[in-house]
Design goal:
Elements (H helix, E strand, L loop, with lengths): L1 H6 L1 H6 L3 H4 L13 H23 L1 H32 L9 H6 L3 H7 L1 H5 L1 H4 L17 H5 L6 H29 L7 H27 L12 H26 L9 H32 L2 H9 L5 H20 L2 H4 L2 H23 L12 H22 L12 H5 L3
Organism: Rhodothermus marinus (strain ATCC 43812 / DSM 4252 / R-10) (Rhodothermus obamensis)
Keywords: Membrane, Transmembrane, Transmembrane helix
Protein name: Quinol:cytochrome c oxidoreductase quinone-binding subunit 2
Length: 417
Amino acid sequence: MAEVKANGFPGWLLDPLRPTREKAEPRYRLPEDVRIWAVPLAIGVGLLIVSLVGWAIDARQFYFSYLVGWTFCLTLALGSLFFVMIQHLTRAQWVVAVRRLPEALVWTFPVLIVLFIPILFGLHDLYHWTHHELYDPSSPEYDPILAGKHAYLNVPFFLVRIAFYFFIWTLLAYKLYTLSVRQDVDPDPSIPAQQRKVSAWGMPLYGVTVAFASYDFLMSLDPHWYSTIFGVYFFAGSFFVALGFITTCYAILVRRGTLQGIVRAPHFQDLGKLMFGFTAFWAYIAFSQYMLIWYGNLPEETLWYRHRLEHGWEVLSQVLIWGHFVLPFLILLPWAAKRTPVLVGTMGIWFAIIHWIDLFWVAMPVLHTEHMTFHWLDVTCWLGLFGVVVGLFFYRISRHSLVPQNDPYLARSLALH
């Protein structure tokens, strides 16, 4: 760890535990095949290069498509960060065997900072509140409502907030991940207590930053609309998609034999319970937001839903009801379904698709107000960014054990029944 401290902030972005990594036992490791991470990374970069052609043709469409894809990747990391912290706080024993992948996924925050740069160039196209004429009383486009929100909705303060969010998220990811990986070669009994301590002060900061980030990235696309429950809605979707991704990855690793006998049916059952629970939780929050706005019947609130219940967008609204709640609820309800790796792994893929549709449904009616429109950039930006994140994620986990070795609860997690 001395080298890490000497190198400072830039060093740990490359390899936080390079001095100890070489000493780790070669158990529970991915095969030494560069294609595991290079192929998805190459596909992602290729799709992003193709997306640049779309940027040259229709810049505004590119920025909206890119924002949806980038937010999808962000929610994966945020959901994984919550997964790791809540398990440390509750001292959950069953989760130790399936904790390393979400720990590695939170390491993508520095990458997401870099991938956010194109959005900075599209702020004027994405966010109506960045137009200066809206705040000039002498301008015919003066908007008194936005003028009243100008203290919060302005570009300098927006950038300061984004920097603060990523500082907090990256700091939490760094501390939790490096402590876990260090434990592979250093069975220090104080490490679990350190992880709980970080999670204890990190959880309140996580809740506040995620809520405000949801307002900044998505809700402010339509700056006249507001919902005090939107932050919880955003969090529910984040944990929902992260659970699906984690479960799918473990199902693949078990099927390939990498973690055969390590991650077993009881682990998939517990992951499936969480997937089932957050299917219902997302539906509860989504209905609560809709019901309260419908009941209040305030024009500045109901207009947001009106845009999503007409001009073809009502089709996606129905897709979300059935695909985000009804079908996953019914499929994951049986006891046997949650213990079947192939089934819960397949549902994890479905979770990713339906979560992207959810983000698309939130953002795109701002751009296409007259009718629902799908553009090829929506797919290339999403899969391009996702490919980059997945490639770097697999690169990270290929450098360390897939199981937190020397964790005091690992034996109990492996013996879960």
